[in-house]
Design a protein that fits this description.
This is Dipeptidyl aminopeptidase/acylaminoacyl peptidase. Keywords: Aminopeptidase, Hydrolase, Protease, Serine protease. Residues 442-648 form the Peptidase S9 prolyl oligopeptidase catalytic domain. There is one protein chain. The protein is α+β, with helices and mostly antiparallel strands. It folds into 2 domains: 53-138 and 151-352, 6 Propeller (Neuraminidase); 398-647, Rossmann fold (3-Layer(aba) Sandwich), CATH 3.40.50. It is built from 11 helices and 39 strands. The longest helix is centred in the last third of the chain and has 18 residues, at 630-647.
Length: 671
């Protein structure tokens, strides 16, 4: 895979399925490198695989489709070039889509009422005078912000205290109404100085449930609750009263009394509501009248992860995607009790779930596709799409190979080796994922594919602290950052280097976020690496406390509060020993691992004459490599190859060494 092959990526979201189970609709996203933007459209495909997927819409960026319960309508989000997503409505019997909303900061995903006549959603409500609500007022001319809380900003969003997210309900026009009849104004259901998310309808349409943090310690802990109110906002009540972090509430649509709310939660965050390290997120149930979430899966063994999509309830079963040793399995959990059944297992990553008419449609990725739709019925699975064919057709994708190494204390370290074509030995790139409570696994990772195509063998592993291996594995690094996890990473490297295909004399190390931390830490301890790339790193836990959007709790929970122990776990504390050539990559608007975490490392290295560069991306946050501007993602990969071409040249990557520092091979602006 070459950097410009990013344009060949096709990434489907979660599908929606017609009530009769006959058709699935999914949004598929691609990178438009020429336009420097993301494009997406809706595709429809029969679930019996009788015909290939076909484009359903041709909007600029259409997403979040959902069929109405009666099957007559498809609601979705549509955004024009440079615009915010707004609610749209498409008749399934034919016709043009109609725009329903005009929120200045955009609308959230639509959620149908059982009567198919109302839609609930969330949207951020800007404070008057900010974010373009007052014509002619430039952001730099807005009045000052007075901050009185710990939670006042979020990476990828910005300031949140002056644009809170709230629940809205929209009544649809009568069926007989034509486009000349104006759409009703949405009704804002919730308000206040807090964010309200993840709205869902009661099966009888008489109530809404949503997630919010409104308790007295909401500014100082990670607890969130399920709340309920009527569709007009009245009769507000708290459903969960616990020490949980709640999300994605829903009901069993067949239980018209709505006696039980199903949700995802970290069930117990401890007495201070902050004990999140390594805690599994699992499906739970709670009495709709109020109570504590009761796990349906063991949180010590299971984890939905951070990006699990949603909890789906249908036909007496609950469907969730669960991380498991680098895979993400689709589980069917019987509500009446009994053992969960894996509907998708093996070397796959389930990215989305849709259910309708007894048909389960899963969005499933693997190491050669960013996602395909798979229809599952009793005793049968049907592959419905071939969205990955364009990239596969380049012939530049490489298969991952599993490997398990042994740490010095005997602990197993699970990971993957991906090797270029042709005879070795190949130079090696040891890559470390972020989190740390995350996982590498069975999915198409564009970065790995680009590096392998450039002639490098890529090593990926899930050291202690990672997700997908149980709570004990995830919590093993608590107050031991850079200890057992570093042992695991190096053990995996050492064991992989025993393979004759890999060149043990030419090894580089790189990673982002926690992976950037591990990179900085390792090159401060050893000179074995030819070069390093430390990206968006968590380098200094002391300054991180006051600069990061999660700084008020993250370092304390992971590294502890004893100054001596914190210093012992700090990557920056050992930076004065680094002699390894190091490229530091950071985004100027990263509020998760703020810019100073990278610039301080660069200055430390530059002052001592260590070969080093600082690559800065304007307008980007922490998610640059995953969802940044397409041209920035392209430029980043080009610069990474340039750096490795200089310090670990290969036959395939020798030309990258000629790219001058501070320039982009794509003719982009300086990095």
């Amino acid at each position: 895979m070459r950097p410009d092959d990013l344009a060949c990526l096709r990434t489907p979201g979660a599908a929606t399925v017609t009530p009769d189970g006959s058709t699935a609709v999914v949004a598929v996203t691609r990178l438009d490198l020429d336009g420097d933007e993301y494009r997406s459209q809706l595709w429809a495909v029969p679930t019996d695989a009788s015909a290939p997927a076909r484009p359903l819409t041709h909007g600029h960026r259409d997403s979040a489709p959902v069929f109405s319960p009666d099957g007559r309508w498809l609601a979705f989000l549509g955004a024009e070039s440079g615009g915010k997503p707004q609610l749209h409505l498409l008749p399934t019997g034919g016709g043009e889509a109609r725009r329903l909303t005009d929120h200045p900061l955009g609308a959230g995903a639509p959620v149908w009422a059982p009567d198919s006549r109302r839609i609930a959603y969330t949207a951020r409500v800007p404070e008057q005078g900010r974010y373009g609500t007052e014509e002619g007022v430039d952001p730099a001319a807005e009045p000052p912000r007075l901050i009185t809380t710990l939670k006042y900003r979020s990476d990828g969003v910005g300031f949140t205290v002056d644009r809170r997210q709230h629940v809205f309900v929209l009544d649809l026009p009568d069926d007989e109404a034509d486009d000349e009849v104006p759409v009703a104004e949405p009704v804002q259901v919730t308000s206040g100085d807090h964010d309200d998310t993840d709205v869902a309808w009661h099966p009888a349409g008489t109530e809404l449930v949503f997630v919010s943090a409104r308790h007295p310690r909401a500014d100082r802990d990670l607890v969130s609750d399920v709340w309920a109110c009527r569709p007009d906002g009245s009769h507000l009540r708290r459903v969960t009263e616990s020490r949980s972090s709640c999300s994605a509430p829903t009901y069993d649509p067949d239980d018209l009394e709505g006696r039980t709310v199903y949700l995802a939660a970290q069930p117990d965050l401890g007495p201070d509501g902050l004990d999140f390290v390594g805690r599994g997120t699992v499906p739970c149930r709670v009495d709709a009248a109020g109570g504590h979430p009761q796990p349906l899966l063991d949180p010590a063994k299971h984890d939905l992860g951070h990006d699990f999509g949603r909890v789906v309830v249908a036909g007496g079963d609950l469907f969730v995607a669960v991380q498991k040793q680098g895979a993400v399995e689709l589980l069917r959990v019987p509500l009446a009790g009994g053992e969960p059944e894996a509907l998708v297992d093996g070397p796959y990553t389930t990215r989305g779930i849709g259910v309708g008419g007894g048909v389960v449609v899963a969005t499933v990725a693997h190491d050669r596709s960013a996602g395909e739709l798979l229809a599952i019925t009793p005793g049968r699975r049907r592959l419905l799409t071939g969205f990955g064919a364009l990239l596969q057709g380049t012939g530049r994708l490489h298969a991952m190979r599993e490997k398990t190494a042994t740490a010095p204390d005997g602990y197993p370290v699970h990971g993957w080796v991906t090797v270029p074509d042709g005879p070795g030995p190949h130079p090696v790139l040891l890559t470390v994922h972020g989190g740390p409570h995350s996982q590498y696994g069975w999915s198409l990772f564009d970065e790995t594919q680009v590096y392998v195509s450039a002639g490098y063998a890529v090593l990926q592993c899930n050291p202690r602290g990672s997700s997908g291996y149980g709570e004990e594995h995830g919590r093993a690094v608590r107050e031991r950052f850079g200890e057992v996890d570093a042992d695991d990473v190096l053990a995996f490297l050492d064991e992989a280097l025993q393979e004759p295909e890999l060149d043990d004399t030419r090894v580089g190390v790189m990673g982002g976020s926690y992976g950037g931390y591990m990179t900085t830490l390792l090159v401060g301890r050893t000179q074995r690496f030819a070069a390093a790339i430390s990206e968006r790193a968590f380098n200094d836990p002391v300054s991180f406390v006051g600069s990061s959007d999660i700084g008020f709790f993250f370092p304390d929970q992971y590294l502890g509060t004893d100054p001596a122990r914190v210093a012992a776990q700090s990557a920056m504390a050992g930076a004065h020993r680094i002699t390894t050539p190091t490229l530091v990559i950071h985004s100027e608007e990263d509020w998760r691992c703020p810019l100073e975490q990278g610039t301080r490392l660069f200055v430390e290295l530059k002052r001592r004459g260590v070969p080093s560069e600082l690559l800065l991306f304007p307008g980007e946050g922490h998610e640059l490599s995953r969802s940044g501007r397409p041209r920035h993602r392209l430029a980043r990969l080009e610069h990474v190859l340039r750096w490795w071409g200089r310090w670990l040249p290969t036959t395939q990557n020798s030309s990258a060494a000629a790219l001058p520092a501070g320039a982009s091979a794509a003719g982009d602006e300086p990095g």
